[in-house]
Write a structure and sequence with these properties.
The chain contains 13 helices and 16 strands. By secondary structure, it is of the alpha/beta class.
Length: about 400
């Protein structure tokens, strides 16, 4: 057993019964991918009940440790984690290592409590004996007072098998399910506040996300694409590598403006976006589309208009934000650190195209009638021929984009 262990806790995974191993295996796979640059410091060990152990096999510089903590903290499936010191199972060893652990944080607290648990029942002393001995030494050697009700500092001690774990700083994770355990989906990402939050929420329920962004360059600035790349880069904190499809829709918008009722512009455009998303889903073997729709927030997001839009595709459309208010969405955007990027000024393909009087309660039969005026298949295929894909990872700078081939319609 090494001197330090990174212990990862998961709650929802622990409830998966016989399927628990599948979820743990995917979580470990995701962690190994995210921590590949730090593999010389880590040894992925094994699961123990509702926890997974990663041994720290050599001294880690503080900056490197903080980088590792950041990546673990933002990994879906993890509810909390901590770095534990290890000791033997004699009372002297436990006391010595526990006092040394507390001493490292002595400037941060005046009062403390010791919470000891003797999982190994074969040792000849009780949990109370451990807490009493450790508490007495901390009180005498560090001049700290015991407070079992409202302590500034809590020291946890667990005696397991032939070793003891000693820790104090429990760092909360983001919970959820490991990315990839729920399948794949295509997320429709604009440069606004809502869709990055929806994308994150889908990732946090175990979906592996590929992103589709629709733009109107050259009518809109290339800066709008740069902004979307920044958002995707931020979302790699949670998933790791993300493939981004950049799809031009200016010709589609021009055709809609020329041949259809102006009040239905956004509905017709969004129908075509979903159909493009469906083609991308087949390419990526994805089973669903994810949008940032929030019921009643804008004209295109009424029940009637969402139904008229969704009818264009046979795929499942997931709307994580549908029942959330704007305040909650903004708070979540700040929490996942996309808000400051989302509020940067940019040209949006949809807002550029918004009619003066958009339809709020579209009739499906009339929408379908207007849709038949468009050469949908040709417009979609032309957009896909001109689309580009970019791979963005959590370990690379976004200036090092890797461009792949154009998509085959």
């Amino acid at each position: 057993m090494t001197d330090k262990i990174l212990i990862i806790n998961f709650e929802e995974i622990y409830l998966k019964g016989k399927n628990q191993k599948i979820f743990i295996k995917q979580l470990v796979r995701n962690l190994k991918r995210k921590l590949v640059n730090y593999k010389d410091y880590l040894n992925f060990s094994k699961a123990h009940g509702g926890s997974y152990f990663i041994e720290i096999i050599k001294e880690i510089p503080e900056k490197t440790l903080q980088d590792i903590i950041f990546k673990v903290k933002n990994t879906p499936g993890i509810t909390g984690f901590y770095v534990a010191d290890t000791a033997g199972i004699t009372l002297d060893e436990i006391v010595k290592k526990s006092v040394a652990h507390a001493k490292r944080y002595s400037e941060e607290f005046d009062s403390f409590a010791v919470i000891a648990k003797r999982i190994n029942k074969a040792i000849p002393f009780s949990s109370m004996d451990i807490a009493r001995s450790v508490g007495s030494d901390i009180n005498k050697k560090l001049d700290k007072k015991v407070d079992l009700t409202h302590p500034d500092f809590k020291l946890f001690i667990k005696v397991r098998g032939d070793y003891t774990l000693i820790y104090s700083k429990i760092i909360p994770g983001i919970g959820g399910l490991p990315v990839g355990t729920s399948g794949k989906a295509i997320a429709m990402l604009s440069g606004g506040i809502d869709s990055p939050v929806a994308t994150f929420m889908a990732m946090n329920r175990g979906l592996h996300i590929t992103v589709a962004h629709f733009h109107s360059v050259p009518k809109t600035s290339l800066k709008s694409i740069d902004k979307v790349k920044m958002l995707v880069k931020k979302l790699t904190d949670y998933q790791g590598q993300i493939k981004l499809y950049l799809i031009p829709v200016l010709e589609i918008q021009q055709a809609i403006a020329k041949h259809s009722d102006s009040r239905l512009r956004l509905i017709l455009l969004r129908r075509m976006m979903l159909q493009i998303g469906e083609k991308l889903a087949k390419e990526e073997k994805a089973k669903a589309l994810v949008t940032g729709d929030s019921l009643g927030q804008v004209a295109s997001q009424t029940l009637e208009n969402m139904k008229a839009t969704e009818e264009a595709t046979g795929m499942l459309v997931i709307r994580p934000l549908v029942a959330l208010d704007k305040k909650y969405i903004i708070e979540t955007a700040k929490k996942i650190d996309t808000f400051s990027i989302s509020i940067l000024p940019h040209d949006d393909a949809c807002s550029l195209f918004t009619p003066k009087s958009p339809e709020t309660k579209a009739r499906l039969d009339y929408v379908k009638e207007q849709y038949t005026k468009l050469d949908v298949e040709t417009l979609i295929n032309d957009a896909l021929k001109k689309a580009e894909t970019v791979l963005i990872t959590d370990n690379d700078d976004i200036s090092n984009d890797i461009f792949i081939n154009h998509i085959k319609p």
